[in-house]
Design brief:
Blueprint (H helix, E strand, L loop, with lengths): L1 H15 L4 E3 L2 E3 L7 H23 L4 H14 L1 H14 L16 H7 L4 E2 L2 E2 L2 H18 L17 H12 L7 H42 L6 H17 L17
Antiparallel strand pairs: 1-2, 3-4
Helix pairs in contact: 1-3, 2-4, 2-6, 3-4, 3-6, 6-8, 7-8, 8-9
Length: 262
């Protein structure tokens, strides 16, 4: 509910602003320790990324309420946004976007970690689980860049707005595609913020969509084996349908004005 989200936002904002906050039966304040504020900023940013790789990866709609709170906090407390990006880029290098190459002397286990895989006791997580987590984080990022906290001061620009999404898309299309990962990330990103990019960039956006269909999808196909075609097929269908209808649908779960009255 909108009213519940406002409570969450106010509590986080009050904590970061140095006001005492009630939690689990006790009162806490960042002023209680010299590094209190820095610690809270760090843990809060880390928590938002965990929401992306956890909650959003399983429930795509949850990207929007989480993102709108972070967007508003980022606007008032830029340090949280900076640390959030640092956590996000470390956990999901594709959010840069960046495909790390294996450097000489780097063990395979360490390289898997750099690529974003979870490695426990030399056991690397399964590909499906890895892709699901990356998907959740990209969806959260794609939601953040288009949302603003509706009760904030709208004088300034969004602290990390759509221009960053446009840049992400352009840089992504300049990278050589990877099997599995590239098709999934492009589809997630376009499903969540394609509509906002279409409204903002118009004809330039449609030129990019045409490039994806004619030039980039064949390049993804060239590196994709028969058993990895699922996500690529969905990306092809999505891009084809959008170009045919000259419309990108609104993402599922987007927050409408009526949401804030609940």
């Amino acid at each position: 509910a909108g009213s519940k989200l406002r409570e969450v936002f106010d509590k986080i904002n009050n904590l970061l602003s140095g006001k005492p906050v009630q939690t689990e039966g006790q009162t806490v304040s960042v002023t209680q320790h010299p590094q209190g504020l820095e610690f809270v900023c760090y843990k809060l940013a880390e928590k938002f990324v965990k929401h992306g790789e956890g909650e959003v990866s399983f429930h795509h709609d949850s990207a929007f309420p989480i993102a709108v709170v972070l967007s508003g906090i980022w606007e008032l407390h830029p340090r949280v946004g900076d640390i959030f990006l640092a956590h996000l880029h470390k956990k999901c290098p594709y959010s840069v976007p960046f495909y790390p190459a294996r450097k000489e002397g780097t063990s395979m286990e360490e390289y898997q970690r750099i690529l974003g895989y979870e490695v426990h006791d030399s056991k690397v997580e399964e590909q499906d689980h890895f892709l699901k987590r990356m998907s959740g984080m990209i969806r959260l990022y794609a939601a953040i860049i288009q949302l603003r906290w509706p009760y904030g001061n709208k004088q300034g620009a969004h602290p990390h707005g759509l221009s960053y999404g446009w840049r992400w898309l352009a840089q992504m299309l300049n990278l050589e595609p990877l099997a599995d990962v590239t098709a999934m990330l492009l589809l997630d990103f376009l499903e969540v913020c394609g509509n906002a990019l279409m409204k903002q960039y118009g004809i330039q956006f449609w030129k990019t969509m045409f490039f994806i269909q004619k030039s980039y999808i064949p390049r993804i196909e060239a590196v994709t084996s028969a058993g990895q075609m699922g996500c690529l097929s969905r990306l092809k269908s999505f891009v084809k349908k959008c170009l045919q209808e000259q419309e990108i649908p609104l993402p599922k779960g987007v927050l409408t004005p009526t949401f804030w009255r609940t």
